[in-house]
Design goal:
With 172 residues, this protein is an all-alpha fold. The protein contains 7 helices and no strands.
């Protein structure tokens, strides 16, 4: 067994790779939107004396953009299918943290396991940044702005415990 597997890093790595896949899909969709905008309909007729900002696309450039659009659409479809398969596996693991039957084997309260699951979902499935997660959990606390770093440490601690607990669940 690898050292990374014993420390739960393999599970954490899978979640991080999943998050990267989401970001990659978003970037590809942004590229596709730009290309689609370039290819959208003929340019509007000149209605004023203001010069056009864009020249019509040359046929070579249009062909290149069409090819790139088709390629991006295929890549996005493939990445989405892979992301969905991985999401199903990861979501199943996170859901088990909240299952009372499974959680009875973990020496932590069910509400703590629920917090761990929520943090994993927010970070990896919703692609939220750490400050957003921290504000979601503790932003309503009266001393949040003063103790923001202390609350962030709590978030990181729950995050770390989540992977330890996922490894315990995998053993059962």
């Amino acid at each position: 067994m690898l050292m990374a597997e014993r420390n739960g890093e393999l599970t954490k790595t899978r979640f991080e790779e999943y998050l990267c896949s989401i970001k990659k899909i978003v970037r590809k969709k942004e590229q596709l939107a730009v290309i689609s905008a370039k290819l959208s309909g003929p340019h509007a007729a000149k209605l004023s004396e203001i010069p056009k900002s864009k020249k019509p696309l040359s046929s070579d450039k249009t062909l290149f953009l069409i090819q790139e659009k088709i390629e991006l659409e295929a890549q996005i479809k493939k990445l989405n299918a892979k992301r969905e398969r991985e999401w199903n596996k990861l979501n199943k693991a996170v859901t088990q943290l909240e299952n009372p039957q499974i959680a009875k084997n973990i020496p932590r309260e069910l509400d703590i396991l629920s917090i761990e699951a929520s943090i994993l979902r927010m970070r990896y499935f919703c692609a939220l940044e750490w400050p957003e997660i921290n504000r979601t959990f503790y932003g309503s606390e009266p001393d949040f702005d003063i103790k923001i770093d202390d609350y962030m440490k709590k978030i990181f601690r729950y995050h770390g415990y989540a992977f330890v607990d996922l490894r315990k669940i995998e053993r059962y």
